[in-house]
Amino acid sequence: MNRRVLRWGIPLAAVPVLLLLGYGFRTDPREIPSPLIGKPATPFSLKTFDGEPISLEALRGRVVVVNFWASWCYPACYEEAPLLAQASDAYRGRDVTFVGIDIQDKEEAARKFLTQFNFTFPNAPDPLGRVSVDYGVYGVPETFFIDRAGRIRWKHVGALTEDVLRQRIDLLLAERA
Amino acid sequence: MIPEIGYAATVAALLLALYGALAAAAGAGTGRPALVQSSERAAIGVVVLVTCCLLLLVYAFLTFDFSVRYVAINTNRGTPFYYRITALWGALEGSIILWTWMLSLYTLIVVVQYRRRQPEFYPWALAVMLGIAAFFLLVMTIPAPPFERLAPVPADGRGLNPLLEDTGMITHPVALYLGFTGFTVPFAFALAALFTGRVGDEWITITRRWTIIAWYFLSLGLLIGGWWSYHVLGWGGYWAWDPVENAAFMPWLTGTAFLHSVMIQERRRMLKLWNLTLIILTFSLTIFGTFLTRSGIIGSVHAFTQGSIGQFFLGFLALVLLGSFSALAWRLERLKAQGELDSIVSRESVFLLNNLFLVAAAFTVFFGTVFPLIAEAVRGTKLSVGAPFFNLVNIPIFLGLLLLMGLGPLIAWRRASAENLKRNFLKPIVTGIVAALILRLLGVGNVLVLLCMGLVVFVSGTMVVDFSRAVRARRRAGRSWLGTAGGLLLQQNRRYGGFVVHLGVLVVALGVAGSQAWSIHTETTLEKGQSVALAGYTVRFDGLAASEESNHSKVTGAFTVTNGRPLGVLHPAKKFYPQEQSPIAAVDYRLGLTEDLYLVLGDYAQDGSHATIKIQVNRMVSWLWIGGLVLTLGAALAILPDRRKLV
């Protein structure tokens, strides 16, 4: 083979592999499309930390943001908590309800978490883990966006960002039931 | 205060390593020894500073300094003492410190050993090693700072990943990293050979023992990893072709190929280009492995942190690959082989085939590992490549390697005569075939197992032929057979160390074949007092007990086991860690030479009235660990100084 071709060809042979690996950053292997998207959300009724009952059925007609969290989930839950607190205030008076579900936690630690972030929306423990199993929660935090008709429309894995939160809620609010 | 000192030490070490790399390169390029000496002092400074970092982090762990983020995430007040030290390498940041520290130690040894002896290569090799150290120190400074502060300071930490609370995890990363970083030395000397243009055999002679040392530790790391997977993860297996396992296996494969192909270059002056390519690939694969496990681009059962570290490693990988292959291409004319392949039937060609097979295995593992990326890039689909693919393509390759393992050490160099072939191989081949036939008559139906076992007998046969012939030839009057054999092992330790390694591989091969073909399992729910039978064992469920440990709570089952006579009570358990979402199974087992009984506790009733139990009878798994031990002993024998030269 031509010497010059080899001189360039040998090192350049590595480039396609490097490009492929670089492409890997644009994908997320953890982002497996949830089979629940588009399906009716499984109903749940729980008792909040304040002792109030909360059920998904009763919220039909409203957009519901179900956020699974835990006090031991550092740092992701701590990163998104201020955003949730802020958003639930910002959307007050609109057709949207935030529901926090605390899983696999100790009550004392969970209450401390709630006070720390000043959550005003309903938060309930899921002592038997039933709800998180029904929703196929793999790790915390995970957030489900449920439309007015009670269908799961979007699932977010990991800490929420302000963009995602607003975008998803606004999209679902814009739909008429 | 500790974190600030640690961070300052990191930055200082980074600057020193950068300076040292440049000074050594400038010294080598201009032939000024003063610069090289200055670089040596920088290298010593790096060792001291990185050792400080390591000790400071250990100190932070021992004193529960939760103001350090890394400490807060990887330990809590309940973490037992030893695991507070080993939590150091329980996650990314600490692992990078450990890696850098080992690399700096290797650099120090290179300085001490070669300062006077290798004036040509040494400065360049030092420059390369310090350059690599500088990269890892950069990672410690920017994307993975181990001393990052956490505010507000939590009252208690999150705790170590419970799966890592095991003695296997104390040793596995250490051995693995000693292997990974060990390959830096031959790589650095290979680059030095390219930079100086002295691409003959010298760099190989210098680094031969280094390569065996790296290979030894990497093998040990893989074995301990398999043992950890087997007795901690509770799925009953030792190897799952998970991307993280593959990441460590690929450099092992190319490193093994390199160990063999250098012998051809030493003996026949062939394969210069190939050997340089192999060591570049092996080193690149150690970096690739870290990239793969830390960048999060491939899904894996091993949950690792993500961040910008992936980009750093990819950039470094690009630099290594493009840089070293450019240097290789630049020296192309000098890399022409001086020897030629005389015949297809020769040791050279068997070694070539061995290399081809090992590199093919590495390539298929690489391909299978990155295939999900290719599929997503080309077709946009998510998929994962599982064990069936890897087994399908690798089993024939490994069987082929077994065959070559029998041929290689005995077949003649250059051109093997019919007489040579008959003298060396006739008896072993017949023995191998007879052994396979006997096993068939004994009822072994699996063709792959028959093939594997027949090959193992054949290879063992060739070893017996060779070794007994050598002993007979050297045995002097009055000396015992055993004494002569022992003397031979020590005198020709490189050759016979290799034989012992091969013997270990044979035992491992039997373990793999037997465990894959003959293991059985069952899963059933038992009422209290009820029994289940499997493969001659009877397992009776006697009840459950709950207990509180320092950092978790635990539900332990009691299962009485008999096989005609009482074998005792096994206690598989489930451990509940507050920081984990799902319970961790703690398996219990009885290990045996031919089979292990292995119990995993599944679901159970809170009142202890019934429990689900998975019972596995895993056959011949112990052979893996025994073979592994033999293999590492053989490698240790081969590392000993060559006696023939000392005389």
Write structural notes for this entry.
Chain A is of the alpha/beta class and 177 residues long. Helices cover 36% and strands 19% of the residues of chain A. Chain A contains six helices and seven strands. In chain A, the strands form two sheets. Chain A has a five-stranded mixed sheet with strand order 5-4-3-6-7, covered by helices on one side. The radius of gyration of chain A is 21 Å and the shape is elongated. The mean pLDDT of chain A is 87. Chain B is α+β, with helices and mostly antiparallel strands and 647 residues long. Chain B has helices at 2-30, 33-62, 69-74, 81-86, 92-114, 122-141, 167-182, 184-196, 202-232, 243-268, 272-295, 309-330, 347-378, 387-407, 418-441, 447-474, 481-491, 493-518, 622-639, 643-646, and strands at residues 520-527, 531-534, 537-548, 553-562, 566-570, 573-576, 584-586, 588-590, 595-604, 610-619. In chain B, strands 2, 3, 4, 5, 6 and 7 form a six-stranded antiparallel sheet that branches. In chain B, a hairpin with a 3-residue loop joins strand 4 and strand 5. In chain B, helix 6 (122-141) packs across helix 8 and helix 16 (447-474) runs antiparallel to helix 18 (493-518). The radius of gyration of chain B is 27 Å and the shape is globular. The A-B interface holds A 3, 6-11, 13-15, 17-18, 20-25, 27-30, 32-33, 72, 74, 103-104, 106, 139-140 and B 72-73, 154, 158, 291, 295-300, 310-311, 314, 317-318, 321-322, 325-326, 328-330, 332-333, 370, 372-374, 376-377, 382, 578-579, 581.
